[in-house]
Amino acid sequence: MAERPGPEPLDLAILQATLRQFAADRQWQPFHTPKNLSTALMVEAAELAEIFQWMTPEQSARAHADLATRERIAHEIADVLLYLVQVADHTGVDIAQAVRDKLVLNARKYPAASPLGTGPVSGAALVDE
Predict the structure, then answer these.
(1) Residues 106, 99: Cα–Cα separation, whole Å
(2) Neighbours of 36 (CB within 10 A)
(3) Cα–Cα–Cα angle for 92, 84, 50, nearest 5°?
(4) Is residue 107 scored above 60 in pLDDT?
(5) In angstroms, rounded to a whole number, what is the distance separating the alpha carbons of residues 41 and 86?
(6) Predicted TM-score (pTM) of this structure
(7) What Cα–Cα distance (Å) separates residue 28 from each residue in 31, 32, 115?
(8) Which region holds residue 119: left if phi is over 0, alpha if psi is between -120 and 50, else beta?
(9) Beta-carbon neighbour count of residue 86 at 10 Å?
(10) CA–CA separation, 61 vs 57, rounded Å?
(11) Helices 67-91 and 12-25, interaxial angle, to 10°?
(12) What local confidence, expressed as pLDDT, does residue 27 receive?
């Protein structure tokens, strides 16, 4: 059986244009300020965290196995991404370049040869403040 090609990669420029048009069609532009969009982003991130709030670490690692929970997670992740893309659009930030720059900064701050516990945050992840 031949494998089906995967979905098209997400094109951030097209997504930004789509979101701009979506807002324009609804006359939402006056409300789409960086302050309002970043606040909405935080609300959506909190809704994502709420899904896992009272789970044990083990439960949270398996939460996606339940189809209804996986769908809730997916919807909240999408909401977070959509608001993040809009914040970047309204502030003139090139997301791809910002990510590349941040990865370089994090690699310098947390070199691979460093043992856990070194640096400002013990066991810091790929993304930090």
Answers:
(1) 10
(2) 16
(3) 160
(4) yes
(5) 9
(6) 0.81
(7) 6, 6, 49
(8) left
(9) 23
(10) 6
(11) 90
(12) 98
